[in-house]
Amino acid sequence: MEPLNWTGVSEFFLKGFSGYPVLEHLLFPLCSAMYLVTLLGNTAIVVVSVLDARLHTPMYFFLGNLSILDICYTSTFVPLMLVHLLSSQKTISFTACAIQMCLSLSTGSTECLLLAIMAYDRYLAICRPLRYPVLMSRWLCLLLAGTAWVLCLLKSVTETVIAMRLPFCGHRVVSHFTCEILAVLKLACGDTSVSEVFLLVGAILLLPVPLSLICLSYTLILATILRVPSGAGRRKAFSTCSAHLAVVLLFYGTVIFMYMKPKTKEARISDEVFTVLYAVVTPMLNPVIYSLRNKEVKEAARKVWGKRWASR
């Protein structure tokens, strides 16, 4: 069996923001706080949606999946990034780099599909309310979520294996704070065309296609809302849809900028800033925008918290 690493590279140096020490000291407390909020907010959503029977619906099933995804996604790189922000030893082993790359690709890709599934779920609930329980059955919910997780994992494993089998020569400095696949490919001295084709096809399938479905779903939702006679109902629906679209546009906008722009050999600090934007800020905002503004979630949280204190 051929070794995965043909050139004997045992570790990589994650350059990150090492050229900007002031920025490092600023990012450490900021990213620590955002990561803590992400963990607490998303964990609370998962716990509440499991413990409260009123939230055992397709909408909250997908929200629970999104929360688990956000926890997994940020945990693939934020803890190590925080350590490196305070340390001069910013190395990561070859194997750990491959694992980090695969997991971050998988969870990030799954989130792209899950956001589209959630938009479709809202379309059925608002535009087809009478048939919604039949169209969005429990079996279909499990099938949609499970397919998204499995397909994106297989896709990410394939992309990671192809990338990490390339020969690496010269320096081993990754111009990023994580083993981001585009940054690692810049170190390869072999032909990267196969890896780039896989990434391009994956980017097209996971970015413009789901985003188009999301936009179509919300266009139909808004058209239905405009026909609602109640002014208060329209305002509530508009507020919810605009909040959801804000997260979608933030996430997809920054990811599309990263993965569908023309490739360059030179690293840019803007790439890392955009990665922080979609990889740290968006998971923190999701609990607030998708759930914590929701009256049902607030009531369920108070109910669960009340039972906990009553049991004491």
Give me some keywords for this one.
disordered N terminus; single chain; globular; Rhopdopsin 7-helix transmembrane proteins; mainly alpha; 312 residues
Question: How is the topology of this model organized?
Answer:
Layout: E1 11-14, H1 21-51, H2 58-75, H3 78-85, E2 91-93, H4 94-127, H5 132-135, H6 138-164, E3 173-174, H7 181-185, H8 193-206, H9 208-225, H10 231-259, H11 269-292, H12 295-311
Parallel strand pairs: 1-3
Antiparallel strand pairs: 1-2
Helix pairs in contact: 1-2, 1-11, 1-12, 2-4, 2-11, 4-6, 4-9, 6-8, 8-9, 9-10, 10-11
Question: What does this molecule look like?
Answer:
By secondary structure, this protein is mainly α. It has one domain: Rhopdopsin 7-helix transmembrane proteins (Up-down Bundle), CATH 1.20.1070.10. The protein is 73% helix and 3% strand. It has 12 helices and 3 strands, in the order βαααβαααβαααααα. It has a 3-stranded mixed beta sheet with strand order 2-1-3. The radius of gyration is 21 Å and the shape is globular. The N terminus is likely disordered. Belongs to the G-protein coupled receptor 1 family. It comes from Tupaia chinensis. InterPro entries: GPCR_Rhodpsn, GPCR_Rhodpsn_7TM, Olfact_rcpt. Keywords: Cell membrane, G-protein coupled receptor, Membrane, Olfaction, Receptor, Sensory transduction, Transducer, Transmembrane, Transmembrane helix.
